[in-house]
Design brief:
Number of strands: 2
Strand content: under 5%
Radius of gyration: 26 Å
Structural class: mainly alpha
Number of helices: 15
Strand order of the largest sheet: 1-2
Helix content: 55-70%
Distance between the termini: 55 Å
Largest sheet: 2 strands, antiparallel
Order of helices and strands: HHHHHHEEHHHHHHHHH
């Protein structure tokens, strides 16, 4: 019996056909994949703080405005000083005031932590501190000297918000990575390099970028948006509602949103135009993106987000009813080039639906306890529902498509 041996060519012999070596993960990884990895690192550390701060701050509002039925235009501190509350009720109000201060203080650390861990993901431990500093300045900008009436005064500029935090996190992260690679010192000087030299250089660069480039850009945007909205206010109710809803939703509390709020407050205070579109646009992104985490398994039979987003989604919806839009920030950061235009369009749809059907809100508050002040509440709620469902459904099917074609991996 003759046994035939099958010889398999490895392609290593000269003249044998060569096959392409399999691509490594590094070769397959595109620019967006790398950016997404760093963003997700920042988001994963930001979400717990956002949830803790948001919930504590939101619960602080339930005591006075839901339990006691306080008017939305009366602050907790005003209620404490009114003399109308004594004993246990007075104690509850003091607890509510403490929770409000503590909750929104925690809330303020969410964006700095996002920037810190995003920078850390790029540049390592050395980039962490400067990333945090940059993120904090994005929320609480440094006061700069301005000459007013012949005297120099410190003036705090408009914050750049989470968009400023993204820019500084990536800029300083890659800058620190560059410094670590290019600055060569003997081993004896390694501690000096990582604990003094690079942090000092990075801190100075962070200050320059935030004070002279990123924050002033936010101020320019703020001024431009004010001019556009004031012009829109003269053009009629629907043009104003369209632009107000878009600018309110755009950056979830950043310079564009604040400019929109400034103009809207002026118009509603003078009884020129109501703030209906703004109030709808504040809550619609948070509800819509939160609904994405509740409806995805119903519509496409799978999760379209990483597991960590599902608790964030529920919190986002809850915070929206408290009048807080920042619950949507993790979703906006995760895929900003798609998510931000999506929820801007959804907010416009919701606002135009509510305004077009006759909803009117003069009081500048979007929380649920201010809803009794709305004229024609049904169109108002319908507008929020329509805009939110548009965001949720489009978002789910878009992400499901990305999963199918291999451009999105859900953990």
């Amino acid at each position: 019996m003759v046994v035939k041996k099958k010889i398999v060519s490895t392609g290593s012999a000269e003249g044998a056909p060569k096959t392409d070596a399999p691509k490594t993960n590094e070769q397959k990884t595109g620019v967006w994949t790398e950016i997404s990895k760093h963003l997700m690192t920042g988001i994963s550390y930001m979400i717990p703080v956002l949830i803790m701060g948001g919930l504590v701050g939101a619960f602080s509002q339930i005591i006075p405005y839901v339990i006691f039925g306080l008017s939305p235009d009366v602050s907790i501190l005003d209620a404490i000083n009114s003399g109308n509350y004594t004993g246990f009720n007075f104690t509850l109000l003091k607890i509510a005031q403490l929770m409000q201060s503590f909750g929104f203080t925690l809330f303020g650390f969410a964006i700095p932590l996002f920037a810190a861990f995003t920078a850390f993901s790029i540049g390592g431990k050395t980039a962490f501190a400067t990333g945090f500093i940059g993120g904090y300045v994005a929320v609480k900008p440094i006061a700069t000297l301005v000459l007013q009436d012949g005297k120099w005064k410190e003036v705090a500029p408009v914050p750049s918000g989470f968009l400023g935090a993204i820019i500084i996190a990536f800029a300083i992260g890659y800058f620190v990575k560059f410094l670590n690679e290019k600055i060569k010192l003997p081993k004896n000087w390694l501690a000096f390099k990582t604990t003094f030299l690079i942090p000092l250089i990075a801190a100075i660069v962070t200050m320059i970028l935030m004070v002279y480039i990123i924050t002033p850009f936010g101020g320019l945007v703020n001024g431009w948006i004010k001019s556009v909205l004031e012009a829109a206010g003269k053009s009629g109710q629907f043009v104003y509602a369209l632009i107000l809803s878009a600018t309110t939703a755009f950056d979830l509390g950043g310079p564009v949103n604040k400019a929109a709020g400034f103009v809207a407050l002026g118009f509603t205070t003078d009884k020129i135009l109501p703030v209906t579109a703004r109030c709808i646009a504040i809550v619609t992104p948070s509800i819509g993106l939160g609904l994405s985490t509740l409806l995805d398994r119903v519509l496409v039979r799978r999760r379209v987000y990483d597991k960590q987003f599902y608790e964030a989604g529920k919190t986002s919806i809850f915070l929206a009813f408290m009048g807080i839009s920042e619950g949507a920030i993790p979703f906006a950061l995760e895929r900003p080039m798609f998510t931000i235009p999506l929820y801007v369009v959804g907010s416009i749809i919701g606002a135009m639906t509510g305004v077009g059907l006759g909803a009117v809100q003069w009081f500048p508050e979007s929380a649920i306890w201010a809803w009794p002040l709305i004229t024609n509440i049904f169109p108002y709620v319908l507008g929020i529902a329509v805009g939110s469902l548009f965001i949720a459904v489009v978002n789910i099917y878009y992400r499901n498509h990305l999963i199918k074609i291999g451009k999105l991996e859900v953990l």
